[in-house]
Amino acid sequence: IFSLWAVSLRKYGGLSYSTKNVGQVLAISGFNLLFSQLTLYPYVERIIGPIIITRIAGVLSITLLTSYTYIAMLSGFSLALFINCASVMKNVLSVSIITRLFLLQNRAVEQHQRGAANGLVMTVVSLTKTAGPAVRGA
Fold first, then answer.
1. Residue 6 C-beta-side C-alpha neighbours within 13 Å
2. pLDDT tens per residue, range 80-131
3. Where does the sequence pass through the membrane (predicted)?
4. What is the C-alpha separation between 95 and 40, in angstroms, rounded?
5. In a 10 Å sphere around its CB, with 0-12 CB exposed, 13-18 middle and 19+ buried, how is residue 15 labelled?
6. Continuous H helices in the chain
7. Nearest to 60 by CA among 113, 97, 11, 34
């Protein structure tokens, strides 16, 4: 969705980015995501705890996503800076939530039920990812 928003024309609320610009933002975001998951996440989880991380990340994600409308009003260096920072933050927060929910789900059931529970969860996630854009578009 980010790529579609970024390449859309400004008159439609997009950023009028080229595919090269989108690739640069996604590359920076991906590198920072890898770095944060390997170094920062385990340390923060030990200090704050798994459930509080998920709650904080959820609240920050909602706040961040509502700011995208205002980011589209920027231009030049400030746009590049804010869009890169927002993309990094969004990915780190999303992956933190997903990682924590998978770990909590695995610990919620006994060993012999984990396969069935994981299958059910993955089915629901797939259905949500399939139906979400269609519902949002409608």
1. 20
2. 899 999 999 998 888 888 887 777 777 777 888 878 887 887 898 888 888 8
3. 25-44, 56-73
4. 12
5. buried
6. 2-7, 19-35, 41-48, 50-66, 68-71, 76-108, 114-137
7. 97
Q: How far is CA 94 from the centre of its chain?
A: 3
Checking 45-50 for CB contacts under 8 A at 24+ apart, the result is: 45/100, 50/100, 50/103, 50/104
pTM: 0.71
Longest distance between any two alpha carbons in the chain, whole Å: 55
**Tokens 């969860």 appear where?**
121
Instruction: Specify the DSSP class assigned to residue 14.
Output: S
In whole angstroms, what is the distance from residue 131 CA to residue 120 CA? 16
CA distance 103 to 98: 9
Q: Which of 77, 64, 78, 73 is nearest to 11 (CA)?
A: 73
Tell me the domain boundaries of the chain.
19-48, 49-121
* pLDDT tens per residue, range 38-87: 888 888 888 988 788 888 998 999 999 888 888 888 888 999 899 999 99
